[in-house]
Amino acid sequence: xxxxxxxxxxxxxxxxxxxxxxxxxxxxxxxxxxxxxxxxxxxxxxxxxxxxxxxxxxxxxxxxxxxxxxxxxxxxxxxxxxxxxxxxxxxxxxxxxxxxxxxxxxxxxxxxxxxxxxxxxxxxxxxxxxxxxxxxxxxxxxxxxxxxxxxxxxxxxxxxxxxxxxxxxxxxxxxxxxxxxxxxxxxxxxxxxxxxxxxxxxxxxxxxxxxxxxxxxxxxxxxxxxxxxxxxxxxxxxxxxxxxxxxxxxxxxxxxxxxxxxxxxxxxxxxxxxxxxxxxxxxxxxxxxxxxxxxxxxxxxxxxxxxxxxxxxxxxxxxxxxxxxxxxxxxxxxxxxxxxxxxxxxxxxxxxxxxxxxxxxxxxxxxxxxxxxxxxxxxxxxxxxxxxxxxxxxxxxxxxxxxxxxxxxxxxxxxxxxxxxxxxxxxxxxxxxxxxxxxxxxxxxxxxxxxxxxxxxxxxxxxxxxxxxxxxxxxxxxxxxxxxxxxxxxxxxxxxxxxxxxxxxxxxxxxxxxxxxxxxxxxxxxxxxxxxxxxxxxxxxxxxxxxxxxxxxxxxxxxxxxxxxxxxxxxxxxxxxxxxxxxxx
Length: 585
Ligand code: PRX
Prior knowledge:
By secondary structure, the protein is of the alpha/beta class. Helix 9 packs across helix 10 (272-284). 50% of the residues are buried. Strands 2-1-11-10-12-13-14-15-16 form a nine-stranded mixed sheet, with helices on both faces. It has a five-stranded parallel sheet with strand order 4-3-5-6-7, sandwiched between helices. Strands 17, 18, 20, 21 and 22 form a five-stranded antiparallel sheet that branches. Bound molecules: adenosine-5'-monophosphate-propyl ester. Adenosine-5'-monophosphate-propyl ester binds next to helix 10, strand 14, strand 21 and strand 22. Adenosine-5'-monophosphate-propyl ester (PRX) binds next to helix 10, strand 14, strand 21 and strand 22.
């Protein structure tokens, strides 16, 4: 099967569309040169390239100075607005703060904050200072934060009081960390800082409002995001300033951003979608974007679309499935007529969800595919192109995708294989921090291997099949089983742990742990609750196991590796496959 049983959703004639799509796919893809796109950027006066300049300053210096860049709504209903001119000045100030404490080109500055305006200002300030920005998801517990700060050797952490308190215990173990800067948004916290910390508000007040951007070249490092693999701790995928050209281009092509749009990306900058498409794609295109600090609530989300007249909405399959579950009556209570283009990423988007978009909003969700490592969208359904529900669309202009077998040779059209990308796309990551070996291992016979399985149909539409490894995708968050297992075995009662992804109708997969206990411990519900609490505090509830099952011993290979594949097969009632390497009891 290379197509789903859902009929193709045909696009109206361009003349009948509210807005003509930016991209004529067949025309552009056939004859495309990235240099054309590089030519649409502004570049620094000295010939360098800086993401913050492309996203903010070039608009602030031109006719968009007073245009709204960010419309922000806080979790308690607070409202703020920032023009490109204001964003420039504030990020200039923050770059000066970093300069005043000795931050230099290439230093790592990490950000651990909720989606408040200061988070965005801080990241642009870091980029202007020539440093590498490392955004951290604010729901993380101390363990993931420690791993990332230690591995990257971060010199500065910018955070907020409640999150600062959450990680107090790990600070003494961060030998390279020199400063903690604490943002006390609207004086939300009565006891914001310790005497050893710096106050963001005080430092910003002292800092000059103009900053000469540190001359970065397109090859200098800009942002790093940690991502999980099958083995070991998460790895820091490092991006370069030149990624911005592809973020800009795909904002135009895959999200069809036009100047007058009001755009809403629901992703958090702790993950790559939140920086590439919650910051760089819209703002390089000079588009106004809504940022909502709060979490998911169906009626609130529809209210935001109505009140801010959102036109382009980029969200994720789990959120769409939760909206579907909440029912069609809720959106009918709101005015959804501003919406013009819907897109989704991060997990497989089931065809029912694509069609549901058509039924409820009068347009399909446009699925697109990419990864932390790819830095930007590589495969997409476009405004100009008919949608085949369940397909992730076609490769963007300037990118070649392939389906290859385990020897890295192309498989025939319609057959499943490994999804691979021809290296050299502009937003390609440049290394895993401190792990060149792992980086090199991703490149085989002239391909970058994505770790996903997919197929392509005879018309060139790509279809996601599944992960080729043990990495779990829960509600769009990649979770490495090893990370979770390592946290679980730190609990005093746990002898061994094996972690798998268990299918789930909403989150696609949930994290399930199989745990064997040390002698003297009894498998009780109370102990299960205690292990759950322990792992949530260490990791975060997004990563910690949703289900824990006690078993006497875990299946292992003779060399002692836990056989997650077998745990999963048993969980799903599937054949156990080859167990010849199983440890003899
Ligand atoms: O397995 C694929 C899945 O998410 C992985 C990338 O996750 P991450 O590095 O966290 O990047 C998230 C930003 C896109 C992929 O290797 N994935 C992503 N998009 C899709 C998808 N799976 C199916 N369909 C998609 N559209």
